[in-house]
């Protein structure tokens, strides 16, 4: 087919479940290749606290720092979390430049969010000599109404 876009290859990262032991994790993955861990922790309580309604009730008035992702037009804007959710959180318009889109990541002081993060259960495996790094983002689903479909991701 002329002009057809080739299909991207499927993810080749190996998956493991709760049967993976720490010693096997160290031997097969820790220093050599990535792995997707599934079912090794129960974060249902954390996810329940990350609904739109619960996050707005708990953190709506707190300021968040939004940033553009483009290095050449890097700017920062501080707005209340509620304003971000209700007015700025939406899928990126394909007609707009990436540097015009504001994201919630990076420069935030997450002290206010501590009570929420205390409910997060981290994976049980650690790579010796390193410190864990966690990322928390909030996104609206592409093509979905923000009033009903969004999730907090931890």
Automatic annotation (TrEMBL):
It comes from Emberiza fucata. InterPro entries: JMJD6_ArgDemeth/LysHydrox. SUPFAM superfamilies: Clavaminate synthase-like. One of its GO terms (molecular function) is cis-regulatory region sequence-specific DNA binding. This is JMJD8 protein. The lineage of its organism: Eukaryota, Metazoa, Chordata, Craniata, Vertebrata. It comes from the Eukaryota. One of its GO terms (cellular component) is nucleus.
């Amino acid at each position: 087919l002329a002009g057809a876009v080739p299909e991207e290859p499927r993810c080749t990262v190996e998956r493991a479940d709760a049967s993976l032991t720490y010693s096997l994790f160290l031997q097969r993955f820790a220093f050599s290749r990535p792995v997707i861990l599934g079912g090794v922790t129960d974060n249902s309580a954390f996810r329940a606290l990350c609904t739109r309604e619960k996050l707005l009730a708990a953190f709506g008035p707190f300021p968040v720092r939004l940033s553009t992702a483009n290095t050449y037009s890097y700017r920062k804007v501080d707005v209340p979390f509620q304003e971000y959710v209700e007015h700025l959180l939406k899928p990126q318009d394909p007609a707009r430049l990436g540097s015009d889109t504001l994201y919630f990541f990076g420069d935030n002081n997450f002290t206010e969010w501590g009570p929420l993060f205390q409910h997060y259960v981290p994976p049980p495996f650690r790579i010796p000599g390193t410190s864990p790094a966690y990322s928390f983002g909030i996104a609206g689903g592409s093509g979905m109404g923000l009033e009903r479909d969004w999730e907090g991701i931890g």
